[in-house]
Fold these 2 entries.
Entry 1:
Amino acid sequence: MKGLVTLDGTPSRVLAWLCALKYAHHTAHWLVKGPSAHGDHLLMQRLYTAVEAEVDVAGEKVVGSGEADKPGWARVLAGDVNALVGAAMAQEKDPLTRSARMESAFQDELEAAINANRSRGGPAGIDNWLTGLADVHQTNQYLLHQRLRGES
Ligand SMILES: [Fe+2]
């Protein structure tokens, strides 16, 4: 999934990634099974619920930045989300591992987006938003990593 929808510091791309993460975490919430299913179900509920709130903020930033005024904006967004989810599903069958891999890829993309925004002198609000997302998603990465430790 990495490289398919590269974060360029624009809110639309961040929104696409967050929608894809929400989909991955929510489906994992439904699909987990086995001895740890109840704990995993609750962990993934925590993650998808938090991402839902981030999706809403991202959507408002997209509209506020004027990106949603571009012709075909919603279609491009749907295509980006579909590309990310499709790649993630194709590359990893286990729902928890898939969510963990997506969180890792998102961290890489956020780092690139933060650097791109800073190097072009982009708005401080975007920098603050992106670094805040990186902070929260680092915790998501940690939680999933700890859960999966010893399984591979
Ligand atoms: Fe549920």
Entry 2:
Amino acid sequence: MKITAIETFVCHARMRNWVFVKVVTDQPGLYGWGEATLEWHTRSIVAATEDLAELVVGEDPRRVEHLWQMMWRQHFWHGNGIVRSTAIAGIDIALWDIIGKIHGVPCHQLWGGRVRDFIRLYCHLGGGNLESFYETPVDNAKQFADLAQKAVADGFTAFKSMAVPPTMPIEGLKPLNAAEACVAAMRDAVGDDIDIMVDCHARPSPAMGLKFATALDPYGLYFFEEPCWPESIEGLATINAAVTTPIATGERMTHLAAFRDLFTARGCEICQLDLTHCGGFTEARRIAALADAYRIALAPHNPQGPVSTAASLEFGFSQTSYIICESVHDDVPWRSEIVTEGYELDLKTRTVKPNQKPGLGVEISEEAVKAHPFQQEVPQRVFYEDGSVGDW
Ligand SMILES: [Mg+2]
């Protein structure tokens, strides 16, 4: 059995170009789907996938670990840069889809069978709509509350908000008060039975992240995400030690050794590895095993396309420490035209029952993708009041 081609399909989904990766074999009808979406890097990802294809076309797709080692280590440069690690992930996920199809079982069955009966989904405020999630100003606490109620009316028992504004390395009380007002308004609107998450997008410095985390600690957030740059592991560890709110991070980390450093410093309680950025299932399973040694929970980052979601769910049904699946359902109105999914979604409770189909259980409509060719992603840039550069 041989890999004969690796193809990429770019589908413009407004905020992102979804990059679907198809690994084709010499067996009639046997191929796998992966995803390698990386916002504002779409051309690089397509090119990086072409470079990797040189290594693996002609090889046996059943030797997934061996191929992963080739993609990570060969031609001198390791696969730890974000573009390369994302391209590796796209191929790796597709290879596991192929293995599931060969054996006629869902991916989670390959890794020891399902460890739970269902998975809970959480949404972004606005369901993934760019403006609702990213552009609701923090001085509009009422809009946060309204969007929170809408999420609950849509069946979600957990949602994420961007209630922490961009701040310069040091600022005074104003942004803290604004963030607290938003979180208080959301808590008032939905009560204590709903789980609220706040994503800082690594906007704060460690000092500001600590102030925000402390101010929001009394509101019982389910988790507080990226309170400072991922490069600042000591900052993450300081914040995680200072509050009872669990700190979540990891979406920008691309390999096992980076997670080792994060876990050793106890920089988080929730590991948000991204299956499409950290080298795919093969590396993610190693990261998950390491997280288990620290009793750190898993909540993979997943705001991308439908193959990424299917991958997160297959992973979640095989990992005991997986707690919740990030989901986007309202980013583009034609999302469901692109994909057929194998899992069963209960819209009333926003929970998912396991996929029964082989592999990831997804089929991408290549025809439907053609209707949404590449366009430059919507730019998202932040400048502070004085004109200096900030983090989005
Ligand atoms: Mg995030």
